[in-house]
Amino acid sequence: MRRMIVMPYETSTSRPNVNRKRSVVVSKKRTSVSLEDSFWASLQAIVKMENTTIEQYIEKIERRRDTPNLSSNLRIAVLEYYQQIAARSMVAGMPESASPSVVPKQSDRHTQLAEKVAAYWGRVDKQLAD
After folding, report:
1. What is the CATH number of the domain that holds 39?
2. Cys staple from 104: which of 4, 5, 10, 108, with CB 3.0 to 4.6 Å?
3. What are the residue boundaries of the Ribbon-helix-helix domain, all occurrences included (predicted)?
4. What mean pLDDT comes out for the span 92-111?
5. Number of separate domains in the chain
6. Is residue 111 assigned to a domain?
7. In whole angstroms, what is the distance from residue 9 CA to residue 86 CA?
8. How far is CA 84 from CA 63, 66, 88, 115, 116, in A?
9. Range(s) of the domain holding residue 69
10. What is the helix (H) or strand (E) element at residue 81, kind and residue range?
11. Mean local confidence (pLDDT), 78-105
């Protein structure tokens, strides 16, 4: 006869990057989001940098939702936030002659951002391989 071993809750919470449900209040309604620990920690860092609360930041994301899944939208928002930081730091490191003198259109900005982020991560990957 097989015995089932049940892990206590404390043991399961010690594992890093577990997808956990967290309760938040959004637009005065209690809801839950399922986020991995890394995304939750990143979300907390963002709200500190933006001098806001998690609830206010989530409300902002909820108003711009592209999909019905709030947790997915939060992951995307966290990723985009850090992509923008990476792109800004790359532009700040560029020589003045390399920065465009004309402000690009919105679609061009997205393309340029994507290219800069891809180039940055390509350089990082190359440095790690060397």
Report:
1. 1.10.3990.20
2. 108
3. 20-82
4. 53
5. 1
6. no
7. 37
8. 20, 19, 6, 12, 10
9. 15-90
10. helix 70-92
11. 69
The answer to whether 113 and 83 are in contact (CB under 8 A) is: yes
Q: Tens digit of pLDDT for each residue in 66-81?
A: 788 999 999 999 999 9
What percentage of the chain reaches a pLDDT higher than 90?
33
Give the whole-angstrom CA distance, residue 83 versus residue 40. 17
112 domain residue, yes or no: no
Cα distance between residue 78 and residue 60, in whole Å? 13
Residue 103 placed within a domain? no
Decide if 72 is inside a domain.
Answer: yes
Instruction: Using DSSP, state whether 31 is helix, strand or coil.
Output: strand
Question: What pLDDT is recorded for position 9?
Answer: 41
Can you list the positions of beta strands (E) in 1-130?
19-26, 29-36
> What's the Cα-to-Cα distance from 87 to each of 63, 67, 107, 112, 113, rounded to whole Å?
25, 25, 15, 9, 6
The string of pLDDT tens digits covering residues 6-36 is 444 444 455 667 889 999 988 889 999 999 9
